[in-house]
Design a protein that fits this description.
The structure is a homodimer of 412-residue chains.
Chain A (H helix, E strand, L loop, with lengths): L2 E6 L7 H16 L3 E6 L5 H12 L5 H8 L1 H16 L4 E4 L7 E2 L8 E3 L3 H8 L4 E5 L2 E3 L5 E3 L4 H12 L4 E6 L20 E3 H9 L7 H10 L3 E5 L10 E4 L12 E17 L4 H11 L7 E3 L6 E9 L3 H13 L7 E14 L9 H11 L4 E7 L2 E7 L3 H11 L7
Parallel strand pairs in A: 1-2, 1-9, 2-6, 3-6, 9-11, 10-12
Antiparallel strand pairs in A: 4-5, 7-8, 11-12, 13-15, 13-16, 14-15, 16-18, 17-18
Helix pairs in contact in A: 1-4, 6-8, 7-8, 9-10, 11-12
Chain lengths: 412, 412
Amino acid sequence: MPVLVMKFGGTSVATLDRIKRAAKRVGVEVAKGYDVIVIVSAMSGETNKLVGFVGETSPLYDAREYDAVVSSGENVTAGLMALTLQEMDVPARSWQGWQVPVKTTSAHSSARIEEIPTDNIMAKFGEGMKVAVVAGFQGVSPEGRITTLGRGGSDTTAVAFAAAFGAERCDIYTDVDGVYTTDPRVTDKARKLDKIAFEEMLELASLGAKVLQTRSVELAMRYKVRLRVLSSFEEQSDEAGTLVCAEEEIMESNVVAGVAFSRDEAKMTLISVADRPGIAAAIFSPLAEAGVNVDMIVQNISEEGRTDMTFSCPVDQVARAEQAMEAAKAAGDINFHDLVADTNVAKVSIVGIGMRSHAGVAAKMFETLRDEGVNIKVITTSEIKVSVLIDRKYMELAVQSLHDAFGLETAA
Amino acid sequence: MPVLVMKFGGTSVATLDRIKRAAKRVGVEVAKGYDVIVIVSAMSGETNKLVGFVGETSPLYDAREYDAVVSSGENVTAGLMALTLQEMDVPARSWQGWQVPVKTTSAHSSARIEEIPTDNIMAKFGEGMKVAVVAGFQGVSPEGRITTLGRGGSDTTAVAFAAAFGAERCDIYTDVDGVYTTDPRVTDKARKLDKIAFEEMLELASLGAKVLQTRSVELAMRYKVRLRVLSSFEEQSDEAGTLVCAEEEIMESNVVAGVAFSRDEAKMTLISVADRPGIAAAIFSPLAEAGVNVDMIVQNISEEGRTDMTFSCPVDQVARAEQAMEAAKAAGDINFHDLVADTNVAKVSIVGIGMRSHAGVAAKMFETLRDEGVNIKVITTSEIKVSVLIDRKYMELAVQSLHDAFGLETAA
């Protein structure tokens, strides 16, 4: 029998009624002849409640105990889902992480899956079981302690199972009906994509389109797991949602797949830095040590041995960045006249694998923004992405005009 | 280091504050030099919530999934208790049933503990850990599925750990401050017992004094585990609560240790049963098959080949008993004129190991009841107990007068 992995997030299993609804979807796939592995999250709110308990008990908690506590919500959903399927006469049973076992590293609260043995579950499929319900987000360390994979980890569990079992597809049921060309709240011209390449999804995921956990997309790309994102709140056909797949599977696509944005950016500029070999390391090492996630970096042309260095980071890390820079200055490691923080910026990006073979995409982006009178503060590019930092007040305008300019309203 | 087992029930860990209070008690014992094993229940209300989820999902549930779901509350408390102890700088970690592992039978929802390996936890004690926090109520079957021990099972977990680790004592922290001569709600003369013998506790437990789960007392008696019942809501000394122990440890005691009672009894009489060899089996086998818990049985003297047979059972099983008797009559297995149910009765019992060496205890009980004008409907006796069935309206009066008659207000 072909294997299908189906993952249901917290809102999709928030109540017993929703679990029933999800179970019906599973029943549909079983009827088609699949052996199904269902990965479940905790009922929404449960994990937050448990995280709150831990935080209140112990501000500097032992991550091993944290994992033991916060993983329990998934166990509840797994058992309830198995019971619901049994009520529908679908042979099912639940597995907790340690029962499979989902073998992970010992990095508690952000463990990585190392191995998922398939013999146990495959044997049950062989005996006529149709659905294995597995508690997502959790695993077991080499020391036999319970681990968790970090927030959104159930997506990663799902993809890892799909890879281990050679599943035909991994369906991620969530509260949105797919991946859009941009956030529909910013423009009503946003269009749901039928397909998107792994690389594009990865850029969109890390750029703030919070549909899928970045790591799950990385994993899917590496193991070529076809990933489908779709809504658990609508009746679904085989064509529903968005398929995240290898670019070979996407026959025809727009040059730009989507416009992503991130509101909570800040731009910081070190004015008149003494320019010398190693200056970048002298600036960015202390920032990294201070836990500042530097994103874009621009260095101006050097004049008379001095230069300006600009970088962006999340707006809530500005204070930390300032502290680190002043400390480095005081220690004599760097020398600058002034540090200017602009906390009213946003990042807008266009993403598309088509850029690789199309020249002039970046130029078209810059022209579009110029025509709208939007000043660009910083630019970075990668093979399939162009990002710009602009004043935050222009963000919606920029997204809308780029969406229009690259014709995203209509499919290729 | 001597080992001490401490068990905290649901009300004792109902909130983070109460967990902290319990952890402080644990800290006191650690300071005395004990290696402590703490057994925790779920935060009160949690298990009921999960049981409700299961019942709503699936009226005829798979007990294996039920166990997987309802055991999760204990895991949360275990982790939180370990974190709380760590915050107090007491080296602690949590264990879930499968991690110890607590090996049980496969009888899901009412599993029995078969073995508790001590090497894992003892090794940690050897490395300087002072407290092992273990999720109560749960274990793992030979098939690797999660099992639970039935309601109140955490008491049994605690006693089993005390037996396995040769603990000096097993302290059961609960919401009452010990075992009383009778229920203080019935007479304010009720007195807390400092010590009570296992056999007496067993009779009291099964008679409705709901302080300890019956099975935990049986286990304690078999393995000679000294069991102390005490309140988690009061400051406690070493002498607090009630010690349940071997009778050799009890130097001096009243002939009668306590007066127990049970309100929810029914008396059923089969009128004019055809008396023949095997008639008792013909009556009580179908009752057992119907799941009726028959308690007291009285057979009248036979006259002209016919007799009356009286038995008692819980009042909510009367309909089931009637059904079983009518079916047996219809099948020709038994023959009786009428079946009379009296659902307004109560059982009152006096319990005491002193009865073994004192004659006239039963007679004194009957005289006391006669003097109060209480009519006795059925009598049964064992070596350390006399029980009577009386009209329910006399129950409080009977308990009070027996408590007075046997001088239970003052210790021996």
